[in-house]
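ERR on first pass: missing label on line 2. Operator R.T. fixed the label and resubmitted. Corrected input:
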Amino acid sequence: MNNENKPPENKEPNNMKFNFNKNKFALFFLLSLVVMFVLLFMVNENSVDVEIPYSVFLSYLEQGEIEAVKILDSNEINGTLSSASGGEYTVFKTRIPYYDDHLMSQLREMGVKITGAPKAVSVGQVILELLPWLLFVGFFWFMLRQFQGGGNKAFSFGKSRAKKYHSELENITFADVAGQDEAKYELTEVVEFLKTPTKFTNIGAKIPKGVLLVGMPGTGKTLMAKAVAGEAGVPFFHMSGSDFVEMFVGVGASRVRDLFEQGRKNAPCIIFIDELDAVGRTRGAGYGGGNDEREQTLNQMLVEMDGFDTKTGVIIIAATNRPDVLDPALLRPGRFDRQVVVDLPDVREREAILIIHSKKIPLTKNVDINRIAKATPGMSGADLANLVNEAALFAAREDSKTVSLEHLEEARDKLLMGIARKSKIISVEDKRATAYHEAGHALLHYHLQHTDPLHKVTIIPRGRAMGMAISLPEKESYSKDKSWLLDRIKITMGGYIAEEIIYGQTTTGTQNDIQQATNIARRMVTEWGMSDTFKFISFGQEEEPIFIGKEIARHKDYSEETAKKIDTEIAMILDESLAATRKILTDNLDQLKLIAEELISKETLDDKDIKLLIGIEDTKKGKAE
Ligand code: ADP
Ligand code: MG
Ligand code: ZN
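pass 2 clean. output:
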């Protein structure tokens, strides 16, 4: 849709559009407008409807045809003609265009019956006078809300706007959540309670009021909360913390009140508050006095949670990826006193997630999902769901009926590195240089003891990288030892050394590698106690100074002298690794050339290809000494 081509009247901002169908208020507004016009019309009606020019009035007067006048206001006169004149009208009105001090004496001279009118304060007139103001104020208020909420939320000012999901509609259960066994185990109790609350309350058991799901984005926290509702068969009210935070003070608090009210009415049910940190940040921290509105909202939430009895059968589940910034009051007993960690999936769980999501698409037979699972360390459930979808898109683009392993791998690479810029024209020289650089990274995998095996090496540019060599962890491990880190540094240096050996100089393409290697070396010295000089000591603590809004700042907590020693240690690790890497690649220059040349022709090689090429079988084990 291109708004530019529309006629100007359609270019009104969206939030200015009134939604008459949905909103009774708007209907009322319209009706009162109509009523006002009718009233106006009626009030005019009961006065005289023939208006004559003042000059005509004067000539009537001079001819003695006026029988009576009623002077309404200083400038309006209702008159009655004497029946003798027998015109088309006998009553009329006229306006005095200027202050006429002869008029009164003239009227008396002609024997006209003069009456005055009291300044009429009839009900109709009061309404008439107030109505425009009422409407004006009403309209102003209405517009304010339009701007404030935008679109269709305009009339639910202060309401919670919680989205209600009935379990019957979505029917998400634990079976839809792959892995996360610990979290499921913890939440089973909540499910049991929601199903049969009496079983627990009879025995006096305490049920947690609030459960806080903690985990990185996309790890399935929302999914998990829905699954709890689905398992228990209760309604699910979903609202995000950021929905509470509004421009106007007091709105957030009233939304909280409304949300809990809804929960109470629909018990047993689940109230799910996503992004709790948006409202639940520590009070009083931050620049210049903090945010009154947010604090009010948070206070209201605390009050509501306290005023809640678990017996009502309402359980509050909240989600956050920043439990560290939450106000401690939220985590006190009786509030979110139970925390459930939702982790990034490990390889086995990734496989399970991929299987769940690939059920919705036709997979080519015998696709090795495990291979994809292995090649996606660090990806969240949401990433994996996205990966499967991308793979289906690739398949559809090729008019393929099924989704193959290649599609899945392409989707994975796309997600990791951005879309392959296959169409970009690369000079032969650049391609050769990239091939040697990547071959350097790749070859080291076959000459080091403590590395993960190579997954594949490619010189197809992706994102900002000219090429890449990807290793594939054999088993999931969360901590790495010193040997692994040292070998990792060498692999990172492989590209640089290969350039140096082949061309006698290096390129700017090594920047990222150098950063990575230096970073590992620095952390080995300052955080992980892996240097010769410093053992069990940590430098450069991360600090959270409360007065500058919880921003993480690095604190230099060591002397200049120590700083020099740290630098020396880092340089030593890097120098030694560089020498070792240089030796390996020089000793195996023929293999480096083989891989590079093959890369130039094939662009992508995997582990099998390389082993075949350089004629090594299980180098690692064979070389163990
Ligand atoms: P969060 O709320 O933690 O950010 P979501 O619950 O919104 O994450 O997850 C987004 C999507 O990712 C889900 O709708 C689901 O498709 C997928 N997903 C995440 N974790 C899992 C899982 N463990 N099993 C199956 N699908 C998952
Ligand atoms: Mg979520
Ligand atoms: Zn590199």
